[in-house]
Design brief:
8-stranded parallel β-barrel; 12 helices; binds dihydroflavine-adenine dinucleotide
């Protein structure tokens, strides 16, 4: 990130929320479940699948985890009622992972159980490296009882190849593979674009080689090209993998992937806690953040 972008990112917290909201709008479906349903119906109408994400991360008390659980159960009911082609992504910190992993497991199990009753699926998002072991632990426990749950692994972590191999050996073969969004130390994570991409491609190749179902989650042309090449080399049908992208990011790439005959799932975040998610997206792409600043000044 160059110095101008660093300054832009550092200035973000000082920007009025109403302006951040304006620039965040392509990336979030809205504040309510009804907003999210509308966006998913529209994506489905264009031939895309969706995964819904109720925004909101760390919680501090158990009742907050139960609140998140109840809201997530409502999402599954809405998907069922509205006949949407969508599943749900959850962050375990929202369900109490940092309070007590056993408690989190029980909360997550009620969600995965309900999803199973409705013929649906839960994707466990991966958070920062302080959560990796416990997230994988919860996933393993859930899979003892439920087939309808998968996990996310991050291409930037040096441990990911080993985690992927270990899970696949146990028969746990449903992944989303992304680069990883959190800032991690160089001892545990690749930091350079080329090194991250190299590891991502190696892990993807080995997952597909071992017949895992992979959500290839990226907006990076190089990784999309590698995805095309690898699914071809492994002789996969279009039902045996999918591409995944975030709402609002590179719609032209989304259209191309669909046109080329691949399944594409869009990650649709919504909810009252949109602010932190938006700041994270802006930090990833300071050009967008730069527009927020321009808007600020043009309003003066
Ligand atoms: P890269 O960052 O190199 O971006 C490639 C290009 O895409 C950029 O040059 C730019 O043009 C465009 N682009 C990327 N981000 C943009 C943005 N915000 N706005 C506008 N343009 C943008 N991470 C994690 O740690 N845990 C998780 O569970 C998930 N889950 C997840 C689900 C899905 C469906 C996706 C697509 C991504 C995630 N991520 C994630 C985020 C992921 O780890 C990563 O940070 C982003 O996808 C950015 O990496 P890319 O592979 O897109 O490449």
């Amino acid at each position: 990130m160059d110095i101008v972008n660093k300054i832009i990112v550092a200035t973000l917290p000082a920007i009025p929320k109403s302006i951040v909201r304006k620039f965040a709008s392509p990336y979030i479906a809205g504040e309510t479940l009804d907003d999210a349903v509308r966006v998913v119906r529209n994506l489905n109408g264009q031939g895309m699948l969706a995964t819904l994400d109720l925004l909101g991360e760390d919680i501090h008390e158990r009742p907050e985890a139960h609140q998140s659980r109840d809201q997530i159960l409502e999402i599954f009911d809405a998907i069922h009622r509205e006949h949407l082609d969508a599943n749900v992504s959850v962050k375990l910190s929202q369900l109490g992972l940092k309070l007590d992993r056993q408690f989190c497991l029980e909360t997550a199990a009620s969600i995965v159980g309900r999803a199973r009753q409705l013929g649906n699926f839960v994707r466990i998002d991966m958070e920062d490296s302080s959560c990796t072991d416990d997230t994988i632990w919860v996933y393993r426990q859930l899979r003892k009882e439920y087939p309808n749950v998968g996990i996310v692994l991050q291409g930037y972590l040096k441990r990911t190849q080993a985690d992927s191999d270990a899970l696949i050996r146990e028969g746990l073969k449903n992944f989303r593979l992304c680069k990883g969004i959190y800032i991690e130390p160089a001892e545990i994570a690749f930091k350079e674009h080329d090194a991250i991409n190299k590891n991502y491609i190696a892990v993807l190749d080995s997952m597909l080689n071992q017949k895992a179902y992979v959500g290839i989650a990226t907006h990076d042309d190089e990784l999309v090209r590698a995805g095309y090449r690898l699914v071809k080399e492994h002789g996969l049908k279009s039902s045996e993998y999918e591409f995944q992208m975030l709402l609002g990011v590179r719609p032209e790439l989304r259209a191309r992937i669909l046109r080329d005959g691949h399944r594409l799932r869009v990650y649709v975040p919504f909810g009252k806690h949109w602010y932190r998610y938006s700041i994270r997206r802006f930090k990833e792409n300071p050009q967008v953040a730069g527009n927020v600043l321009k808007a600020l000044f043009s309003h003066n």
